[in-house]
TrEMBL record:
Gene3D superfamilies: 3.30.1330.30, 3.40.1280.10. PANTHER family: 23S RRNA (GUANOSINE-2'-O-)-METHYLTRANSFERASE RLMB, TRNA_RRNA METHYLTRANSFERASE. It holds the Pfam family SpoU_sub_bind. GO terms for cellular component: cytosol. Residues 17-35, 43-56 have a biased composition (Basic and acidic residues). Residues 1-90 are annotated as: Disordered. This is Methyltransferase. GO terms for molecular function: RNA binding; RNA methyltransferase activity. Residues 102-177 form the RNA 2-O ribose methyltransferase substrate binding domain. Signal peptide: none annotated. InterPro entries: Alpha/beta_knot_MTases (IPR029028), Ribosomal_eL30-like_sf (IPR029064), rRNA_MeTrfase_TrmH (IPR004441), SpoU_MeTrfase (IPR001537), SpoU_subst-bd (IPR013123), tRNA_m1G_MTases_N (IPR029026), YfiF_prd (IPR016479). Residues 1-16 have a biased composition (Polar residues).
Length: 333
C-alpha cells in the first residue's frame, strides 16, 4: 500500500469535543424565549367588539378630505345575558311539555286550525294527507312553523296511536277557566255539564262532541288534564275546540257553588223520587251531573232526579256519552 493511500489520524490537537446534551422537555418548556409574536391581552380582548368608526383622510395632492368608515375594535363592558332561555334548556322543555299537547285525527286538527291557528307549534302529516291540507301547510310555511311529511310507521310513533288519521299537531293548550271565576259573572240562561269521575278518553270525547253539537260551551271537571287526552280529542272530531273546561277542586265543592249560584242540579237516577224524562221541567240555569258509575251519593235535597227508561232489562244503564245526548236533547228542544 502506498503512503498516499494510508489513513492518517490526528493524535495531537488543540480542539476538544463535548457531547451535546439534550435538554429535558420540562426544562425546555420552562425557558421563556422571546418569540416574534404580537402582544395580546386576553383581559382587554374579552371586552372588544367591532364597531364602525369614521375618520377624515386627506385626498391625494393635499386638496380636500374624504370620510372613511371602517370597523375597528372598541372596548365595551361585558353584559351578562339575561334573555329568554334556549328552546333546548331543560327548564323550558319541562315548561313546554306542561303547556303543550298533541292532537291527531283529521277533523280534530282541521277544527283546531280553523279556531286557533296561532296555537299550532308543529305538524306531522303523511304524504296522502299532505295533498288535502294545502292551506294549513301554506300557513305554517308563511309563519315559519315546522312541519314534517312522514310515513305511516313514523306517524304512529309520533302520535302514539294507530288511529292518527294521517295527521298530528303539537299545539298550545287552551288555559282552563276556574268555576269560581266563571260564577262571578251573572249567567241569566246557562247549561253546564258536571263530569264526575269520568276517565275514559272515548267517553270524554263523545261528551265533548255532543256538547258542541247542542251548543253547550262549558264543562266542569276536577281533572281537566283528562279532557286534554289526544284520544278524547280524536273522538270529539273537532268538538273540543268549542267547549271550554271549568276547573273545580272537587265535584262536591262544585255542587255547593252551583247551588248557591241558583243552578238546577239534575241527576240520572232510578229511585222513587226520580221522574220520567218527559215530566222533567228545566229552569233557566241547569247543570247535568254525568258519571260512569252511580252518583247517588251526590244528590242533594233539592236536586232534580230523572229516569231515562221505565223498563230496563239490562243490568246497567246507557253509556255516559249516550246519556249526555238524551239530556241535552231535552234541554235543547
Amino acid at each position: 500500500m502506498s503512503k498516499s493511500n494510508k489513513p492518517t489520524f490526528q493524535t495531537q490537537t488543540q480542539k476538544s469535543f463535548q457531547e451535546k446534551r439534550r435538554q429535558p422537555f420540562g426544562e425546555k418548556a420552562a425557558v421563556d424565549k422571546p418569540r416574534n409574536r404580537p402582544a395580546f391581552s386576553r383581559k382587554n380582548s374579552d371586552n372588544e367588539t367591532n364597531e364602525p368608526r369614521e375618520l377624515s383622510l386627506n385626498k391625494a395632492g393635499g386638496k380636500g378630505s374624504v370620510a372613511v368608515t371602517f370597523k375597528g375594535s372598541a372596548n365595551t363592558s361585558k353584559v351578562k345575558k339575561n334573555g329568554p332561555l334556549s328552546p333546548r334548556a331543560p327548564e323550558k322543555i319541562k315548561k313546554n311539555r306542561a303547556e303543550e299537547m298533541k292532537v291527531y285525527g283529521e277533523e280534530a286538527c282541521l277544527a283546531l286550525f280553523a279556531e286557533r291557528p296561532q296555537a299550532i307549534v308543529r305538524l306531522w302529516a303523511t304524504v296522502a294527507m299532505s295533498h288535502k291540507i294545502g292551506e294549513l301547510l301554506s300557513y305554517l310555511a308563511a309563519n315559519k312553523k315546522a312541519y314534517h311529511i312522514v310515513d305511516n310507521e313514523e306517524m304512529a310513533l309520533v302520535s302514539g296511536s294507530e288511529h292518527h288519521g294521517g295527521i298530528c299537531l303539537l299545539v298550545k293548550k287552551s288555559r282552563p277557566l276556574t268555576l269560581t271565576g266563571y260564577l262571578e259573572v251573572a249567567q241569566p240562561n246557562d247549561c253546564l255539564l258536571l263530569l264526575d269521575r269520568i276517565n275514559n278518553a272515548q267517553n270524554l270525547g263523545g261528551i265533548l262532541r255532543t256538547a258542541a253539537f247542542y251548543g253547550v260551551k262549558h264543562v266542569i271537571s276536577d281533572s281537566p288534564d283528562n279532557l286534554y287526552a289526544p284520544a278524547a280529542w280524536r273522538v270529539a272530531e273537532g268538538g273540543a275546540e268549542y267547549v271550554r273546561v271549568l276547573h273545580s277542586l272537587s265535584t262536591e265543592t262544585a255542587l255547593v257553588a252551583l247551588r248557591e249560584a241558583g243552578y238546577q242540579i239534575v241527576h240520572i237516577a232510578n229511585g222513587e223520587q226520580s221522574v220520567p224524562l218527559d215530566q222533567l221541567k228545566l229552569g233557566a240555569k241547569v247543570v247535568f251531573v254525568l258519571s260512569e258509575n252511580s252518583s247517588d251519593d251526590l244528590i242533594g235535597e233539592n236536586d232534580s232526579q230523572v229516569r231515562l227508561s221505565l223498563r230496563n232489562p239490562l243490568k246497567h244503564g246507557l253509556n255516559v256519552a249516550v246519556n249526555t245526548g238524551i239530556l241535552l236533547a231535552k234541554w235543547y228542544f
